[in-house]
Amino acid sequence: MKTLIYFWKRFMLPHIGLFVLVLVTGAVAAAASGAGVPFMVKYVFPVVFRGNETSTPELLNVIPALQSFSPDALLLLACASMPAVFVVRGLAMWGNAVLVNILGIRILETLRMQVFCRVQELPIAFMESRRKGDVISRILADTSNVQNILTTVSNDLIKQPITAFCSIAAFIFLLVSSGQGVLFLVNLIFIALAAWPIMEFGKRISQKSQRAQQGLGELNTTVQQNLENQREVRAYAMEEREIQDFREVSGRLQTNLVKLVKYQKALIPVMEVVTALALAFLLVRGRMCGLTLTDFMAIAASLFFMFDSMKRAGTAWNRFNEAQGALKRLAEVMYEPNTIPQPEHPKKFDGRARGEIRFRDVSFGYDPEKLVLRGVNLTIPSGQIVGLVGPSGSGKTTFASLIPRFYEVTSGAIEVDGIDVRELDSHDLREQLSLVGQQALLFAGTIRENIRLGRMNASDEEIMAAADSAAVSKFLDAQPRGIDTELGQGGAGLSGGQRQRVAIARAFVKNAPILILDEATASLDAESEREIQEELDKLAQGRTTLIVAHRFSTIRNAHRILVFDYGRIVGDGTHEELYASCPLYRDLYDRQGIES
Ligand code: ADP
């Protein structure tokens, strides 16, 4: 219920005007069906089918003004009233359906936007704890499912009960006016009988649907992983295994969908049996009490609309339960607490940061029970170039990731220019940082646009200068449209080294005081690495630079080297100092010397 109220407030309330219109048109359509048709049968048909009856049709008693009409005019009026009711009903239904769809489309847009925006501000740890395919499935499939219910809720879940209400009112009126109290009471039992499967199936459908949506998320993840790793799949001949995986996940989804559909589709037959029972009872009772055909037909029409609208309301209720599964999955994203909260009154750097970094007794674990960094204390003065070395998994990347506050320290504090990073606005903090990782992350767009991402207001001259500094210009001539060559998704069309150069040019344009190079040349061949090393050295000049190093050649210009082991810093000094005093460093260095 809490989820529902939250979504109602957030997504329906902004469209309240449209929603009211939906209700009004729904109510008109509902009244025209639920009450209009039975009354037509009861009052209008007898005017037409008077036959040999000498009695005055009831309609003339109900509306005395009609008595002054000639018989032909009355007949015409009676015959025209049927299409008139259906014109009103048809127009209202059309308006209702169109408006409901507009409402649905708008809600879907708001919902998707909000979930997507939320994903942007959630901590990186949240994204890492979930599979990408599952998140995509939440943003696209779950929102679309929720749109379905919200529109069903706003349409059938409201229109059908109004129809039921109108037809019940007509039904009571018709029974009372023909003295059929017993029929009324017995039908109350049928109404209760019809409500039971609606409630019971609803519960089950909600559970099954959540499982089906989850299955869809798994399927998305499987496809995505497969597409992202096509090279590995082919290289290791994993096609068969991938197909097997896909078959299993898809099979699970199918099983859940079949279960879901069984419950969904059971409702209508059950409700129809109840309707038939009620009609059969009406027949027996009509025979026993000598109901007139007109009364019988009118009551039957109201019964039909009553159970029909209950059936439709029940189906809508089921759809609603089905989408509750999706709502719960969306709520997980919307309610996820932001573990990297922004300060209410952030401190600001005095213009450009100097780039002094201090770790004060910092401990950190991705899982707070399992620390990955322990008791790190150190100061990196502005402009110092620092190499981070140590065995794989010793915490170098983690150390560097804490500075942009990608993760929150478990204890201790990290300061930039003496300000705790938790007291800075994260955007402001990250403005002071450039990051070049192992894989250059390029987006679809031109090379120029990709460089400009470093600083959106950079001039074309600045971009060209950055392209020169990063030696991007060297390979631009070979590109069909120079710097305006369009790249594919992820920078497709450029070699690994070329992509890395574009990323370096981006960092040049950004010109931030702190630079983090996380194994920036690790995925390159020796020649590209040597070439790019020059550009990186240039980029590091005058900035506080942290170099997560996999090869010692990348830190030949470092002023200082930190040696990591099991989350602790076990060595801190220059190459000569460490080689003399730190056995781990000496060991790492010598081993690499032999390998290379
Ligand atoms: P290094 O850069 O020295 O190779 P990392 O900082 O990447 O080491 O990793 C340190 C430890 O933290 C390792 O045990 C690794 O398994 C773990 N780790 C790294 N990244 C994550 C993550 N995103 N979630 C959970 N554990 C992680």
Task: Provide the fold topology.
Elements: H1 2-12, H2 16-48, H3 58-62, H4 71-121, H5 124-128, H6 132-154, H7 156-177, H8 181-228, H9 230-235, H10 239-289, H11 293-335, E1 357-364, E2 373-380, E3 385-389, H12 396-402, E4 411-416, E5 419-420, H13 426-431, E6 433-436, E7 445-446, H14 447-452, H15 460-469, H16 473-476, E8 486-487, H17 496-510, E9 514-518, H18 526-540, E10 544-548, E11 560-565, E12 568-573, H19 575-581, H20 583-595
Parallel strand pairs: 3-10, 3-11, 6-9, 9-10
Antiparallel strand pairs: 1-2, 1-4, 4-5, 7-8, 11-12
Helix pairs in contact: 2-4, 2-7, 2-11, 4-6, 6-7, 6-8, 6-11, 7-11, 8-10, 8-11, 10-11, 15-17, 17-18, 19-20
Bound molecules: adenosine-5'-diphosphate.
Radius of gyration: 36 Å
Q: How many extended strands?
A: 12
* Tally of individual helices: 20
* Class by SSE composition: alpha/beta
> Which spans have pLDDT < 50 for at least 5 consecutive residues?
none
| Main sheet specs | 6 strands, mixed
Bound molecules: adenosine-5'-diphosphate
Q: Give the terminus-to-terminus CA distance.
A: 64 Å
Strand order of the largest sheet: 6-9-10-3-11-12
Summed over residues and divided by their number, the pLDDT gives a mean of 83
- What percentage of residues falls in helices of 4 or more residues? 55-70%
Produce a short descriptive summary.
64% of the residues lie in helices and 10% in strands. By secondary structure, it is of the alpha/beta class. The strands form three sheets. A six-stranded mixed sheet has the order 6-9-10-3-11-12, with helices on both faces. A four-stranded antiparallel sheet has the order 2-1-4-5, covered by helices on one side. The protein has a two-stranded antiparallel sheet with strand order 7-8.
